[in-house]
Amino acid sequence: MIPSEFEYHRPGSIDAALAVLQEHGDDARVMAGGHSLIPMMKLRMADVPHLIDLQSIAELKGIAVDGGTVTIGAMTTQHELITNDDLVRAAPIMREAALLIADPQVRYVGTIGGNVANGDPGNDMPGLMQCLDATFTLQGPDGTREVQARDFYEAAYMTDREDDEILTEISFAVPKGGQAYEKQKRKIGDYATAAAAVILDKVDGKVASASIAMTNLSDTPVFSADAAAALVGTDCGADAMADAVTAMLGDIDPTEDNRGPVEFKKHVAGVILRRAIERAWSRA
Ligand code: FAD
């Protein structure tokens, strides 16, 4: 598996990267860790005559927790999400989810920006970003704009990002309450058969607010407002959890593939969501 010939660019700033994107239009594509893009190029499923490596752009890196807001540069690796103490304190669900992505070798190089920009329904970060109600910052020739993670995903590999825009950073408010990321996969290093991100805030023994998103159960991540609503105001008991699972099953749309038939995936989704709710509630 050898990719077709391409020219390699390594700009040192966002502006320089945007200039190469502008110059070559559809023939150019940015690369972050390359752990999704390079396999696609080797399989000849992606033809990229001009590859723009973002590795040397320092302004795309780093994690800041400031004034109740978490900001993560697009080129921050999944390994850095796991090892950054400020982030682990502010949003432990990030570490819990990142540890379930692939294996250490992939996580040392794969980035949060590449994971969310890719648009692969199997990627874990997009659903988590929807659960956290994250904001994506995109920079293009006409300036900078912000898009909510909940509005970003349109179909498999199709997002709101324009071809000439670069995702520069991701931000979200420090979440309140208990958090849990639960994932079922066939083996270490596999993508999810089903995964659930859950955040629950508890006040006086009741669910004060809830956020739930599911991964790899549709052609986009699924933010299930109805599943969350089924828990709010309850004591998070068995009936409320059953209602949340029923609501979630109404929102997902899995297809049969080598991870199993549709009914199996729905069953796994229910089990995974229940586990994530139970764990988030125990931490709330
Ligand atoms: P790249 O591969 O470089 O880019 C991916 C796409 O995003 C490309 O289209 C690229 O043009 C675009 N892009 C990248 N950065 C930007 C940017 N800043 N602005 C605009 N567009 C951008 N992922 C999971 O979530 N869960 C898993 O379980 C999992 N298992 C894996 C197992 C293996 C064996 C491998 C090889 C990968 C696995 N991955 C998994 C994918 C891995 O996490 C990738 O690293 C990640 O999805 C893409 O990140 P990247 O930095 O490598 O991006």
Automatic annotation (TrEMBL):
SUPFAM superfamilies: CO dehydrogenase flavoprotein C-terminal domain-like (SSF55447), FAD-binding/transporter-associated domain-like (SSF56176). GO terms for molecular function: FAD binding; oxidoreductase activity. It comes from the Bacteria. The keyword Flavoprotein applies. Keywords: FAD, Flavoprotein, Oxidoreductase. PANTHER family: XANTHINE DEHYDROGENASE SUBUNIT C-RELATED. Pfam families: CO_deh_flav_C, FAD_binding_5. It comes from Phaeobacter gallaeciensis. This is Carbon monoxide dehydrogenase medium chain. Residues 1-177 form the FAD-binding PCMH-type domain. InterPro entries: CO_DH_flav_C, CO_DH_flav_C_dom_sf, Diverse_Substr_Oxidored, FAD-bd_PCMH, FAD-bd_PCMH-like_sf, FAD-bd_PCMH_sub1, FAD-bd_PCMH_sub2, Mopterin_DH_FAD-bd.
